Amino acid sequence: MLLAIDAGNTETLAAIYSGEELLHDWRLSTERSATPDELAARHEGVLRLRGGSLTDVDDMVISSVVPALTASYEHLGELYLGRPALVVGPGVRTGIALAIDNPHELGADRLVNAVAAHRRYEGAVIVVDFGTATTFDAVSAAGEYLGGAIAPGIQTSLEALSSRAARLLSVDLVPPTRAIGKSTAESMRSGAVFGTVAMVDGLVARFRRELDPAAVVVATGGLAPLVSELSDEIDEHDRMLTLDGLRLVHELNDGQGGEG
């Protein structure tokens, strides 16, 4: 069995696969200082609630934007699985070409999103990932990663606004009922949600003009459902895109840990 881990700045996604079959998936808050033992305990606890265990795992594949956690997860693999994990990064086969100025700058999560989207959706594809940041990634029909855009995430923007404006409080992110807010909280939700929808639709329209007017637009990430329902440009919502991309990268590398 394969354990796929995507360690993000705010949340960590995990899944267990048996071949192509998804057996379990879960989401944890990211703890940057967690030790290998603490990480193992957290994931083992969830797996036991689902009727599984880390002892069932044969291989592990990781994408991480948190360097300290990358090292901890690598150590976890050695301690509890008896073999090194495959870490997505330079030297790992992905099946797509990186047509950008500096491939080393590309986040591993964005890379595996591109891998999964290219495999799943024929032709050109645009991925919009709603996380700590809202990222946009363009993949050509030929399987070239062409680049993208990065904007503040919805929750990140709200937290920044609340911290910098003394009279603005934190608000829950729920779908607004109208654009014209009748209170401060309603106004902030309108700006955060409808503002993000407008930004997404505007950027995607520009991407399509540069990439392909018929490009499929797929949304993923924790807040994707909130925006997808209101967007005119998003075609698909795929909550497992990142983890499926990790599984595909693992297959391409024949389950071998390390680079190459």
Summarize the structure.
37% of the residues lie in helices and 24% in strands. The chain is of the alpha/beta class.
Structure description:
There is one protein chain. The protein has helices at 36-49, 67-81, 108-120, 154-164, 184-210, 224-228, 241-252; strands spanning 2-7, 11-18, 21-29, 59-64, 86-87, 97-98, 125-130, 133-139, 144-152, 216-220, 236-237. By secondary structure, the protein is of the alpha/beta class. It has 2 domains: 2-87, ATPase, nucleotide binding domain (Nucleotidyltransferase, domain 5); 97-244, ATPase, nucleotide binding domain (Nucleotidyltransferase, domain 5), CATH 3.30.420.40. The protein has a 6-stranded mixed beta sheet with strand order 6-9-8-7-10-11, with helices on both faces. Strands 3-2-1-4-5 form a 5-stranded mixed beta sheet, sandwiched between helices. β10, α6 and β11 (236-237) form a beta-alpha-beta unit.
Tell me the radius of gyration: 19 Å
User: What pattern of helices and strands is seen along the backbone?
Assistant: EEEHEHEEHEEEHHEHEH
Strand count: 11
* Shape, per Cα inertia axes: globular
Whole-number average pLDDT? 90
Number of helices: 7
CATH fourth-tier homologous superfamily of the largest domain: ATPase, nucleotide binding domain
Binned, the helix content reads: 25-40%
Unreliable residue runs: 255-260
Number of domains: 2
* Main β sheet profile: 6 strands, mixed
Task: Specify the CATH architecture of the largest domain.
Answer: 2-Layer Sandwich
Pairing-aware structural class of the strands and helices? alpha/beta
CATH structural class of the largest domain: Alpha Beta
Terminus-to-terminus distance: 21 Å
Give me the side-by-side strand order of the main sheet. 6-9-8-7-10-11
CATH fold node name of the largest domain: Nucleotidyltransferase, domain 5
Beta content comes to 15-25%
